[in-house]
Amino acid sequence: MNAAADLSNWLIVLIVFFLLLGGLLIVVGALGLLRLPTFAQRIHGPAITVTLGAGSILIASMLLFSSLNSRPVIHELLITLFIFMTAPVGAMMMMRADVYRKLREQAKEKES
Amino acid sequence: MSAILPRPGLSLLLLCIWLLLNQTLAPAHFLLGGIISIAVPLLTQSLMPHKLRLRNPVALMRLLTWALVEISRSCFNVSMIILFRQREKVNSQFIYIPLDMHDPYGLAMLSCLINCTPGTVWVEVTPEKHELYLHVFDLHDEAWWINTIKTRYEKPLMDVFEGAADAGRT
Predict the structure, then answer these.
(1) Does residue B129 surpass a pLDDT of 90?
(2) How many domains does chain A have?
(3) CA-CA distance, B92 to B111, in Å (whole number)?
(4) Are residues B154 and B77 located together in one domain of the fold?
(5) Domain of residue B40, residue span
(6) Mutate to test the interface with B, among A18, A24, A31, A51 (most CBs of B within 10 A)
């Protein structure tokens, strides 16, 4: 099956653009996670990955499968919803853990 | 509302999610999704002690659109900083932002929006003074951040979740 041949050129360009953009943003997010010096800074890297990075790839997925199946395929929206409900909570919990650990270390240093 | 449908909005949302998940509009799935969307709010009602009332859906849509633009903009900015800025020059700071909003759903929504935006992470709301403790990736102007959060995010959320009648309550 050579389904890609049925797609118009501008649509393929659009899909590839979103895939490349998403991939690039995910790499940048991972790079941030790898290279930034402190924990509080590192936590900002994955925020790029889960928002625009994942978003671009989901848009590409919606465009591709909608046109391949000739009907709107939009259940990717659910992934957006679930990311919106879970990723911020995870980031907040990790940030809190970091802040409280530092506070505890400071208190220990004061004692000794 | 009624005893069968305590949260009509949540029921509708669950039905939509069910139909989207199964990618169908078949009557059988309407029935199954309908049963789930009636049963789940009834079963989980004891986990949701606060009543949610959306008073201004238009303002909510406007806020989400603004947030989407802001998320894209911040993504670009943070990417540029990660890629090109020297690491020692990134000015990461914790700042305090005084909050007037007390509605738990509004605060939850605010925290999700702020954490979704790259460059800002919500730490907590201090219990004594009701201030938001926020970590900013690259702080250049503290007053600008406080002003943006208060006017662009908190004000619309107060309109949506608390309503104009008790917006002045602090």
Answers:
(1) no
(2) 1
(3) 19
(4) yes
(5) 8-47
(6) A51
